[in-house]
Amino acid sequence: MRRQDREITDITEIIDIMKRCDACHVAFSNDTYPYIIPLNFGMMTDGENIKLYFHSAKEGTKLDLLRKNPKVAFAMDCNHKLVMRDNGSCTMEYESVCGNGTLRIMENDEKAYGLTTIMAQYHGENENHFPEAVLNMTEVMELTVNEITGKRLKVNS
Q1: What is the reported pLDDT for 75?
Q2: Global pTM exceeds 0.85
Q3: Domains in the chain, ordered, with CATH?
């Protein structure tokens, strides 16, 4: 990382940033250009290993690309704030996380776990019941994170 003064290496801090994010942008490999899409996500971690969960319709470009190559990259960011300086310049405060990993489509008996994890990201820990019809019309994906970095710019007041 070029700006090491902004780098976050503490995995606990990185996970805390991820908890504050609203969406995860996932980049898939394509023959001509990368394909990137923002997705709602859920996260599970044991403090060191991180898994992200996403949902999708049963068909579409991201699933086609996933079936060709399960290796993906991802990015998420939050806490943006424009800071105006006395000299007329400005900067943007932010926190961000980038990484890569391997994405897989979960089996039918795993889908409820993935969906519950996604719901917890936005609504806290809940007992969720997903009707069989919902599970049958939904794909749920699990991303095992291989590499991850964090970055932050906070202007001193």
Answers
A1: 99
A2: yes
A3: 7-148 (2.30.110.10)
